[in-house]
Amino acid sequence: MINPRGRSALENNLVLTIVALLLLTLVPTINNMILQIRDTRVEIAGRTFLESLSILHDRWLIQRSNQIGGILFNPEGWPDGTITAGKDDGLMTCTALWQVIMTQTGLTASSLPEQGSDFLVQHPAAHLCLYRYQQSQPDTRTRILLYRIGTQSVKTMIH
Asked: pTM for the full model?
């Protein structure tokens, strides 16, 4: 029977059921897309970091200077500190290297989680920088960039 004021209760229930089914199928897909976007962002950051190291190494090969643009280089031509933080300054070195190397990317890094930066900087061992990706809404994955100071070794780990 047609209701002169609008749809019947059966029609309303049918529409609500269809909308609920669509939401049930779309929410996991959207969540998966968000995970993939976060993973991709970290992978691109790792590649950018590595490419920046290569460019800096090429500049060192041309200039053969132990300091170029605020970055200190080791005898092999790889960054191992900045003029504000030498290679043995631990956390300061890791933070300063990120700020100099990744300055044009728009990605931020800080050793203080409450600053809301893209990456949390940690210094787990001598000459090792760990950049842990932070997101406002945590998920089940850990995303890390690992850089061995004074080398071209940058590893991207997502698990």
From this structure: 0.84
